[in-house]
Every structure is written in structure tokens, then in C-alpha cells.
Amino acid sequence: MPYVDRQNRICGFLDIEEHENSGKFLRRYFILDTQANCLLWYMDNPQNLAMGAGAVGALQLTYISKVSIATPKQKPKTPFCFVINALSQRYFLQANDQKDMKDWVEALNQASKITVPKGGGLPMTTEVLKSLAAPAALEKKPQVAYKTEIIGGVVVHTPISQNGGDGQEGSEPGSHAILRRSQSYIPTSGCRASTGPPLIKSGYCVKQGNVRKSWKRRFFALDDFTICYFKCEQEFEISLLNMLKPRLY
């Protein structure tokens, strides 16, 4: 019958088949060490062996896929036999009695079982979102109404002024507030401080043209209020320095 030693390891004698299908079983002393993640077997109890005598066999618990009682077809002449399936190999072991066999099968299955921790912390994505949302919640920003339009195949959210306008007063003919917003971007490495909102995201996207409906690669920049696009990233950087308007194609 297996027992638990002082190091909290399950130990006991079992007979193991020397080679699969050989039918020859050898008496060995087994130690199930969950801390070391392995099953070891010795010629005898290590306390009775000479100093430095090591294990004659070992099996990592992570390699074990299943431990089950051997069927009569597998070992018809071997009572109290169970089998360990590990990778592409099978280990047949014989216990002393029925209870001994069940205890070893249960202990090995429990030790090699893959468990997923329950509860604990929140998923990383949730934590990141909460950490990003926390500073914004602390800031008291005035509520702003927006007008949604589609310009050049891009959905545009334009802030509406309190006097009922759409934020385009004083603009040049044909221009739009979303495009004028790009003029306020100032490089952070420059000597002047940025007067516009910080960028939320920037990068390349493929955009469909408004007239020819062809797809072109453009560099987009997004802040809290606007989204604008440029022919390339270099043009975006130049517009930051020279306060140029983005292209409209």
C-alpha cells in the first residue's frame, strides 16, 4: 500500500514490466514526487541502498496522458495491473492488491492532471483597459456633442459647438473641422508644446477612394475628436513641423 513520506511524496513497492509485452515483471520501489514533477523507481528503498545509488528509471509527470486499469485482454495473467500511457510508450505495473492498485491509479492521475487556476486576477486585457480608463474617469471633461459624417469613405465624428454650429466657422471653403484639427499637432520633441489632443493611435490602413473606388495605402492619425490621413508617414511628420493640411485623396 502506498504511503506518504516526510517530504510529502507517495512511496511504495510495485512490479513493473521490464519491457512492453515481455511479460517479465521486476520488483521496484516507486516514489511519486509532485514537487520534482516526476515518478522515480529504485532497486529498493533508497534508505537501504548504498550512498549515491540513483534511480533505475524515471518518468516526467507532464508526459503522462492517462493512467488506467489494464484490461484482461492486455494482461490476462497479471492481476491488479494498471497501465501508464506516456507519449508513445506504455508502462505496465502490478500492485499488491485491489486497493493498492486503485490508490496508485488515483494518485498518478491526480499528479499528472492539468488544472487551470480558478478565480485570481482579472484577465490582462481587462486590467489594461481598466488602467487606461481610470485616469480618464478622474478628469472632469465637459460633455461634447458630435456630428457623424462619411467623408471620402471614412466615418468622421465632428464636435458641435455650443451655439449649434458644427465647428466650421471661420474655416476656408471646402475645408472640414476634422482636417483642420491636424494642424494643431506639434511634435513632442519640439520646443513648442502641443495645443491639440494627444494621438490615440497612428499607422497605415488601406482606404478606398471616394470617386475611383480604388484602394490606396494611407497613414492615419486618430485623436479624441478627429481622424485624418496622409499619403505617407513622412508627410504626416512634415505636417507636424510645417502645420500643413493633409491630402484629401
From TrEMBL:
It holds the Pfam family PH. This is Pleckstrin homology domain containing A2. The gene is PLEKHA2. Signal peptide: none annotated. Gene3D superfamilies: Pleckstrin-homology domain (PH domain)/Phosphotyrosine-binding domain (PTB). It comes from the Eukaryota. Residues 7-113, 198-249 form the PH domain. InterPro entries: PH-like_dom_sf, PH_domain, PI-Interact_SigTrans_Reg.
